[in-house]
Here is the input.
Amino acid sequence: MRIVSLIASATEIVHELGLGRYQVGRSHECDYPPEVKRLPQVTEPKFEPDGTSYEIDQRVKAILQEGLSVYRVHADKLDALKPDVIITQSQCAVCAVSEMDVEEAVRQMVSSKPKIVSLEPNTLDDIFNDIQKVAEALDVLTDGLRLTATLRRRMDIIAEAARKVEREPRVACIEWIEPLMVAGNWMPTLVEMAGGENLFGEAGRHSPMIEWGTIREADPDILFVCPCGYSNEQTLAEMPSLSQLPGYADLTAVKNNRVIVADGNRFFNRPGPRVVESLEILAEIFHPDRFQFNHEGTGWLRYRETTDKNR
Here is the structure.
């Protein structure tokens, strides 16, 4: 069996199922586990991925306005790998290579006539269903059921403990800084499971744009910033764009030192097995007296504005 995964979360699923040795190709975003970086890369973005969130947003919009795909699939490289299975997604044309891109590449050149498995994770349950979908396509459905049962059990333990807290902090989850977007899809569910009150965004729906004034008026207890595809370091570099907005210093979250920068790329924007770690991170941020998973410093950081001299 020869597997090509064109979505980072699917690569993690393949490896959690114990089938990493069969993966022969990857997307430009597949980076975990680290050994996958040695595999041939068969996709690339059509835009320059470096720059501010505003610059990236403008580049992507310019491509989409022309009716074009945001990513390029190299059909010749795919053909050389002779895959039996290609895993892609149909959830978001901006986040990763789409099913349409893959189908076009396969029509062009891929002689091995691979099976295309397309994932569409909009909710937390969808993430578990997609794990089983991958497992079934790779003929290890029993292993997939076992994996999802283990992940659900770990999350249920956290959720049960979180239900016993006396007060739920009010949380605003920022998924993009400029323009401002709040987290949807599975994030509202994770916030509630971790013992928080989600202020914006709906479970199962794409992340919506929001006005800064709406966030300021809601005055969240916790401002949780996890831009899509961004590491902690990238988000820290962007934070002055947020912290210089009118009224930022007056927010309860800022006054109580509860502005959090989290690794969206590795955890919150990646619908795979590490969704459990995402829940752990939220739980220890919301209720540090009850949960200690030791993700601070790696999965998340507390944003302090001592270096923000222009505020």
Notes: Residues 306-311 have pLDDT under 50 and may be disordered.
